[in-house]
Write a structure and sequence with these properties.
The complex is a heterotrimer. Chain B contains 10 helices and 16 strands. Chain B is α+β, with helices and mostly antiparallel strands. Chain B folds into 2 domains: 30-75 and 87-225, Cupredoxins -  blue copper proteins (Immunoglobulin-like, Sandwich); 248-258 and 297-407, Cupredoxins -  blue copper proteins (Immunoglobulin-like, Sandwich). A 5-stranded mixed β-sheet of chain B has the order 3-2-1-5-8. In chain B, strands 4-10-9-6-7 form a 5-stranded mixed β-sheet. A two-stranded antiparallel ribbon of chain B has the order 11-12. Chain C is mainly alpha-helical. Chain C folds into 3 domains: 34-497, Cytochrome c oxidase-like, subunit I domain (Cytochrome C Oxidase, Chain A, Up-down Bundle), CATH 1.20.210.10; 503-582, no CATH class; 601-647. Chain C has 19 helices and no strands. The two termini of chain C are 24 Å apart. The chains are: A mainly alpha, B alpha+beta, C mainly alpha. At the B-C interface, helix 1, helix 2, helix 3, strand 7 and strand 9 of B face helix 3, helix 7, helix 8, helix 9 and helix 10 of C.
Chain lengths: 212, 409, 656
């Protein structure tokens, strides 16, 4: 019947709430992820301003032994741009879901691709940011700021990567056999995850980049 | 109904056993007890403990007695009608939610009070002692007296002492059970703990935060002495070593492993609050007068031995000047290493290895020969001659070094 | 919903390789088989952890014990704690979650059967990983709490803590996956009429536990990830020279660690709350209050973590706040104890082995609770923390509480799992040896602690006033060792020669007892409709429940229809007599019930995951260091491919 079946294709299975199992599970998962990112963000905040050596996020630092000066490391305009791209991807995600719900095969592909592309662009920005930081002398091994910054944003980036892979998988299925309104739940789950990852980024962007 | 009978008999046996153990535990000598505090801090905690124990015992008796009553009274009998199905009783349930709340309030009020009194800043004029934890020994610094010592803490009776607790490496925790509650030594932080010793004696102290291989072997002794003696001690410790050489045979008959315990006067075992005394002209506590609980007599591994040689302090002093010892240890005017404990007044200390062995020629020579064999994980490498270390010191050299160090009073 | 199933025609069903022998276990997605795998694995680790405890006690039986070295002792106490917490009590809980929750809520399986299999395999491989250190002679030695900076590369350069860090990372993934699964299962697979306030109390306590799991494990995952990155990639989270604060680890660890305590105890509370009513022949006293107190314990459990840190110098305000919140948690816990006592009061108590263990829990957990209150007071705790007083306390909580509850549950549900009862005589011997041994082993530790004996020491000198306590403790431990052997013997022997149990050997009240023992693969031929909290009792003796308080308004007790005609007949019969062994029941295929297809893909995915972590540990090996990245990437690839193969294949056979 279908080239690519899916985990819970039997819609007739009884559930107490009438909701798909996966919908409940993803909410539990998101709740759990809140604690995960909460711990990472708390660590960043606890270690804020406690690094023994620079470079620092918001102020310049001169190495007392070499006399070398490191500028403030965070580039807020560039990251604002990538934040904007990620926010737009959430909008695309909403449109993609709506397209699948109404059975619009053309726009479902366009918006899924747009979402994945926006996610990938965000990752590109992050890769650029990470490499330029390393060139400027900040690695996860440099100081407390480096460790907590790279690991927090790195884990967020890993979540975005997983989301992009998920989106590409959906896109692949859409091309192979088409996502029908009955498949909307699959897109819905991905959308919930994607919006969550976006919201986390807004928290990270505010706490790390904007608040000095 | 034999099974009921057997059940009850077993229960009585178990109860008896618990009581016997409890009584036995109370009747032994308890030199490290937390229940006979010797400071105002310890007494504040002990008062709280009494409240807790009182209410705890009442709750324990009520619950267990009711449990036993229910078990006996409501056991199934032949021909008994099925019990009525009661699903709950709101009044009762509210009652037994409130009752514990009241008891907890009774406990919480003095608790919070005690927290704030005991964690206030130390009173003015208290004696500051910096405690620095190392894997696995204690460094004590007296900034007021410009004194640094290791593993043996001297405190004047009646004066509040404020400990500034730091650590050089991992976490440790500073505890003298009879003097009051412990406090952790946290890397990159300084913690404080203060109390006023109220009587003179020798107390055991330990590290109570797991700190690696020899966590169990990180002990110290606390000598609470009269103020005049404390001042004399501080004056003596501030200066350079008093060179007091004496013949030092490494014969095992002198103070063999475990023999120290056997040779202690029996009377001292039951006198935990023995008064510290001075050793001849020195204001330090004489090692042979230590009460049994504070004596150090860990067994030496059987395969670690030394011949019967007599050390010569003068020869030892010559060896020491060029020995690897100087990289890590201070002897005022001779060497300036800072990694290991100070040795300036080493001969006046009672034990070696952070409270593990008596400070006598034999144990000291063995310690220099191979300290990791005597104290697992010891950071001090073995210096004795061995197949793997042919350039190490022979027994005579070890005995000479021991003689030199012991002469540093 | 409930309709009678017409007897289906019997015909031979061809067996696939997944239906018999080893493959049937490796490929199983049946919650009952997975539950059994958890149970057997946990029992095996109970023996290992117990052996570690016995060696510890032999070492400490007198002053200056010489049985093991300091290094070995440190590994033993670290692994004893880690094993008993993560590899015994937690998987014992998981065994009961798996086996019982679908049965108790009237479901055919969990929401995600393959994820469930994945959880088990990840757990097993993580447990083996954790213990692999023994084989290379470098078992974890930093304590189960693994305080930084001692556990950083600088102070623990060996492989020891690598095994701990990675093992815990793997185990955490297992618990998280299981948590999502059971939350979904309980919310979404309750049979018609099974309102939340009709759920069996064990399922309720498990429900709370799952929330604790999914909210607490992310925190330890982060803490352990930091440590892992520090150890393997040189980051600075706990590097003291970089200015790191060791309290970061402690806060993260205990933010997880205290909810973990309730993860360990709540399932046991649930089991005991199932056992006590049955053998008192009375419903649970104050069911709603029991539920709410469980929720409250779980909730407050997140607000008390720093009571493990009263000695670190947090300042008077933090000490006061955490002291008081800790005292508050005693209130819902106390309510549970009182409600259990009230359940028994006025009942008709039958002292079967499960009942004895349940009573044992009340008696012993009370002691642990009282000593817990004693160190909820921060100043008092300063004299108790890190001494044997604490060791005594948490053994009363975890052995006197969790293990007693687990034993009660094991004896109680063994007939459901195997179809046979465990031997009552051996069971009672086991109980009394455990009860006596446990008190002898752990009660004297209170005195040792108050007399100043620190924890985690491999030797102590004589004349410290600790000799008698330690000797008695060692004898208690030996008795516990014998008790455990009796239990194992009973467990193994009863499987073959125990009395045949029938559906409902105890006269229980909840729907799992309407099923044959052991239940068929699909559990319920027809999903039952639930009309009350105690459907079996209501069906048997309606007059008893005619006028009861606490019954939700408008709820009429009606006779239940459970599993069709043939099962209906069975629970009308006298329950105290053992019913004849079940005849072979129709297969799922014969009944036209779609059950998940067995598959080894979850096992393959878990192997991929483990290989990935194996690659990481190779980074610190001497001989295979160059292989670390290839092995890690191979593991990732294998994991991803297995995961896709799993996600893209249907759960059940296709319908046409």
């Amino acid at each position: 019947m279908t080239a690519i079946p899916h985990e819970h294709g039997h819609a007739h299975h009884y559930t107490t709430t009438g909701l798909d199992h996966r919908k409940i599970a993803i909410w539990a998962f998101i709740g759990s992820e809140c604690l995960f990112f909460g711990s990472l963000i708390s660590t960043y905040l606890i270690y804020k301003g406690r690094s023994v050596v620079g470079p620092f996020p918001h102020e310049a630092w001169t190495n007392p032994s070499t006399g070398q000066t490191f500028p403030a490391i965070l580039d807020i305009p560039v990251t604002s741009a990538s934040t904007f791209v990620l926010l737009m991807s959430s909008l695309f995600m909403v449109l993609a879901h709506a397209s699948v719900v109404r059975g619009d095969r053309k726009y479902s592909k366009i918006w899924l691709a747009a979402t994945a592309l926006a996610g990938a662009t965000f990752l590109g920005f992050q890769a650029f940011e990470f490499t330029s930081f390393v060139h400027e002398g900040l690695t996860p091994r440099t100081n407390l700021f480096g460790s907590s910054f790279f690991i927090l944003t790195g884990f967020h980036g890993a979540h975005v990567t997983a989301g992009v892979i998920w989106l590409i998988t959906l896109l692949f299925i859409d091309f192979r056999r088409g996502l029908r309104p009955a498949d909307a739940i699959n897109v819905d789950l991905c959308a919930l995850y994607w919006h969550f990852v976006d919201v986390v980024w807004i928290a990270i962007f505010t706490l790390i980049y904007l608040i000095q | 109904m034999t099974s009921h009978y057997r059940t009850r008999r077993l229960a009585i046996a178990a109860l008896t056993a618990v009581i016997v153990v409890g009584l036995a535990a109370c009747s032994t000598t308890v030199p490290n007890t937390t229940l006979e505090p010797k400071t105002e801090f310890g007494r504040a905690i002990d008062a709280l403990w009494d409240t807790l124990l009182f209410w705890g015992t009442i709750v324990f008796i009520l619950v267990e007695a009711f449990l036993i009553y229910v078990v006996i009274r409501f056991r199934r009998r032949e021909g008994q009608p099925a019990p009525r199905h009661v699903h709950g009783n709101t009044t009762l349930e509210i009652a037994w939610t409130l009752a514990p709340a009241v008891i907890l309030a009774i406990i919480a009020v003095p608790t919070v009070k005690t927290i704030f009194t005991t964690q206030a800043n130390a009173p003015r004029g208290s004696l500051t002692v910096e405690v620095i934890g190392h894997q696995w020994w204690w460094e004590f610094r007296y900034p007021e007296h410009n004194v640094v010592t290791a593993n043996e803490l001297y405190l004047p009776v009646g004066r509040t002492v404020n400990f500034a607790l730091k650590t050089q490496d991992v976490l440790h925790s500073f505890w003298i059970p009879q003097l009051g509650g412990k406090r952790d030594l946290i890397t990159n932080r300084t913690n404080y703990l203060w109390f006023t010793p109220e009587s003179t004696s020798v107390w055991n102290g330990v590290c109570v935060e797991y700190c690696g291989t020899s966590h169990a072997n990180m002990r110290f002794k606390t000598f609470v002495v009269p103020p005049e003696q404390f001042d004399a001690w501080a004056n003596h410790q501030r200066g350079g070593p008093v060179f007091m050489p004496a013949p030092t045979p490494t014969a095992p008959t002198d103070t063999g492993a475990g023999a120290a315990a056997a040779t202690q006067p029996a009377a001292q075992a039951s006198a935990p609050a023995a008064q510290p005394q001075t050793s001849g002209s020195l204001p330090t506590f004489p090692a042979d007068q230590l009460p049994l609980y504070a004596a150090s007599y860990n067994p030496v591994p059987r395969n670690l031995t030394i011949g019967n040689v007599t050390g010569d302090a003068a020869r030892g002093a010559q060896i020491y000047r060029t020995a690897p010892c100087i990289a890590c240890h201070v002897v005022q005017g001779v060497s300036a290493g800072i990694v290991g404990p100070t040795l300036t007044h080493f001969g006046s200390r009672t034990s070696i290895g952070a409270g593990l062995f008596p400070n006598d020629p034999r144990h000291l020579a063995l310690w220099i020969k191979n300290s990791p064999a005597m104290k697992p994980g010891s950071k001090m490498p073995p210096f004795g001659k061995s197949p793997t270390m042919p350039a190490g010191y022979d027994d005579q050299q070890l005995a000479d070094l021991a003689a030199y160090l012991l002469s540093l009073k | 919903m409930a309709t009678t199933v017409a007897a289906p025609p019997r015909y031979a069903v061809p067996h696939t390789k997944y239906e018999r022998g080893l493959w049937s276990w490796l490929a199983t997605v049946d919650h009952k088989k997975i539950g059994q795998l958890y149970l057997y694995t946990a029992i095996a680790f109970f023996l290992i952890g117990g052996l570690e405890a016995l060696i510890i006690r032999e070492q400490l039986k007198g002053p200056n014990g010489q049985l093991v070295s300091a290094e070995m002792y440190n590994q033993l106490f670290t692994m004893h704690g880690t094993t008993m917490i993560f590899l015994v009590i937690m998987p014992m809980g998981a065994a009961f979650f798996n086996y019982l929750i679908p049965l108790q809520i009237g479901a055919r399986d969990v929401a995600f059967p393959r994820l469930n299999a994945f959880s088990y395999w990840v757990f097993l491989l993580g447990a083996l990983f954790m213990n692999a250190g023994w084989i290379v002679g470098a078992a974890p030695d930093g304590g189960w709490f693994a305080y930084a900076p001692l556990t950083t590369q600088q102070f623990s350069p060996g492989l020891n803590m690598d095994f701990w860090v990675i093992g815990l990372q793997i185990l955490g993934l297992s618990s998280l996956a299981a948590g999502f699964n059971f939350i979904t299962t309980i919310i979404n697979l309750r049979a018609p009429g099974m309102h939340f306030m009709r759920m069996p109390i064990f399922t309720w306590m498990s429900f709370v536990t799952q929330f604790l799991l999914v909210l607490a494990f992310p925190i330890i995952t982060v803490a352990v990830t930091f440590l892992m990155l520090d150890r393997f990639f040189g980051t600075n989270f706990y590097t003291i020279t970089a200015g790191a604060d060791p309290l970061l680890w402690q806060h993260l660890f205990w933010l997880f660690g205290h909810p973990e305590v309730y993860i360990l105890i709540l399932p046991a509370f649930g089991l005991v709350s199932e056992v006590l009513p049955v053998f008192s022949r009375k419903p649970l006293f104050g069911y709603p209050v029991m539920v709410y107190s469980g929720i409250l314990i779980g909730f407050l459990g997140f607000g008390v973590w720093a009571h493990h840190m009263f000695a670190v110098g947090m300042g008077p305000i933090a000490d006061s706040v955490f002291g008081v919140t800790t005292m508050l948690i005693a209130i819902p816990t106390g309510v549970k104890i009182f409600n259990w006592l009230a359940t028994m009061h006025g009942g008709s108590l039958r002292f079967t082995t499960p009942m004895l263990f349940a009573i044992g829990l009340i008696a012993l957990f009370t002691i642990g609770g009282i000593s817990g209150i004693m160190h909820s007071s921060p100043p008092a705790d300063l004299q108790q923390t890190d001494t044997y007083f604490i060791v005594a306390h948490f053994h009363y909580v975890l052995f006197g509480g969790s293990m007693m509850g687990i034993f009660a549950g094991t004896y109680f549900f063994y007939p459901k799992i195997t179809g046979r009862l465990m031997d009552e005589r051996l069971g009672k011997i086991h109980f009394w040896l455990t009860f006596v041994g446990m008190n002898l082993a752990f009660f004297p530790m209170h005195f040792a602690g108050l007399n100043g004996m620190p924890r985690r020491i491999y030797q102590y000198q004589a004349n410290q006033g600790w000799d008698i306590e330690n000797l008695v403790s060692t004898w208690g431990a030996r008795i516990l060792g014998v008790a455990t052997l009796v239990f194992i013997w009973n467990f193994v022997k009863s499987r073959r020669s125990g009395a045949v149990a029938g559906r409902d050997p105890w006269g229980a009240a909840t729907i799992e007892w309407t099923l044959p023992s052991p239940p068929p693969e699909y559990n319920y031929a027809v999903i039952p409709t639930i009309t009350s909290r105690y459907p079996l009792w209501d069906a048997k003796s309606p007059e008893l429940t005619a006028d009861v308080p606490h019954t939700p308004e408008g709820e009429k007790r009606t006779d239940v229809s459970v599993g069709g005609k043939e099962t209906h007949a069975s629970f009308k019969g006298p329950s105290d007599t053992h019913m004849a062994s079940e005849v072979a029941h129709p297969s799922a295929k014969e009944l036209g019930i779609a059950m998940p297809t067995p598959t080894i893909k979850p096992l393959l995915a878990s192997i991929g995951l483990t290989v990935m972590f194996l690659g990481l540990i190779l980074k610190h090996s001497v001989n295979y260091q160059s292989l670390w990245l290839p092995v890690l990437l191979a593991g990732v690839a294998f994991f991803v491919v297995s995961l896709y193969a799993w996600l893209l294949s249907p759960l059940e056979p296709e319908h046409h």
